[in-house]
Amino acid sequence: xxxxxxxxxxxxxxxxxxxxxxxxxxxxxxxxxxxxxxxxxxxxxxxxxxxxxxxxxxxxxxxxxxxxxxxxxxxxxxxxxxxxxxxxxxxxxxxxxxxxxxxx
Length: 104
Known about the structure:
Blueprint: H1 10-22, H2 27-75, H3 88-98
Helix pairs in contact: 1-2
């Protein structure tokens, strides 16, 4: 092991010492544990951000697909309504398709 010297604010020192006292750790073990946990959290946060980004893309695509389906049913002109909200066939489709899965 190597020895290093660092300077930290008093408030942080108090928090570290309190953490050590609560977990029955001496100061050096306490600092090691907190640094390891902090470094682990950095990698976890990166994975979390990637997952959130993927979920956002999936949600965006789901909305796009829903809009395409609405437009498709409207363009079929089953009834002569150009507004998707006024198309009974589309509303019937939506009520069957989305009644338990989505809130529109």
